[in-house]
Amino acid sequence: MFGLEDYPYKNGFYMGKLKFPTDYPWKPPSIMLITDSGRFESNSRICLSISDYHPESWNPVWPVRSIIIGLISFFVTKDHTVGSINRDDKERERIAQESKKVILSHPKYKAIFKPYEDNIPGLGKPI
After folding, report:
1. How far from chain centre, in Å, is Cα 105?
2. What pLDDT was estimated at residue 37?
3. ∠ CA(29), CA(3), CA(74), 5° rounding?
4. In whole angstroms, how far apart are CA 1 and each of 25, 62, 65, 93?
5. For residue 125, what pLDDT is reported?
């Protein structure tokens, strides 16, 4: 995720993982962030109404984009859930400022996204 406009995440880069069950779209994916955000624990499942924590509220017509939008919308709240952490805004801002460097050196980023860098705003050439 990148391009968040809200303080303290402005200009931050965050990498996560959606793990889809074999019977997706009938069941929801698990959601986790791989890199530090100051909002969610790294490498821990996040409890959201659109995640595998709440299959009863899942709707199979929701596209992947809706899952990401739901995660982003929860990012900027102060609500607590399983997988969230409480860091102050200054710490979250510091993490956001360092996040681009962290992402660019992360092995998963290099393996998956490096070839597409020119198409990622803020990393490669302007689109």
Report:
1. 17
2. 95
3. 45
4. 22, 19, 12, 15
5. 53
27 classed as catalytic: no
Whole-angstrom distance, CA of residue 4 vs CA of residue 37: 12
Q: What share of the chain is helix, strand, coil (3-state, %, to 5)?
A: 35, 10, 55
How high is the mean pLDDT in each 10-residue block of the chain (127 residues)?
Answer: 89 94 97 95 94 95 94 90 93 94 91 87 61
Q: Single out the catalytic residue among 47, 68, 76, 85.
A: 47
Q: What is the homologous superfamily of the domain 16-119 according to CATH?
A: Ubiquitin Conjugating Enzyme (3.10.110.10)
Domain boundaries, the chain: 16-119
User: In three state form, how does the secondary structure of 55-106 look?
Assistant: HHHCCCCCCHHHHHHHHHHHHCCCCCCCCECCCCHHHHHHHHHHHHHHHHHC
Q: Please provide residue 110's backbone torsions phi and psi, each rounded to the nearest 5 degrees.
A: -60, -40
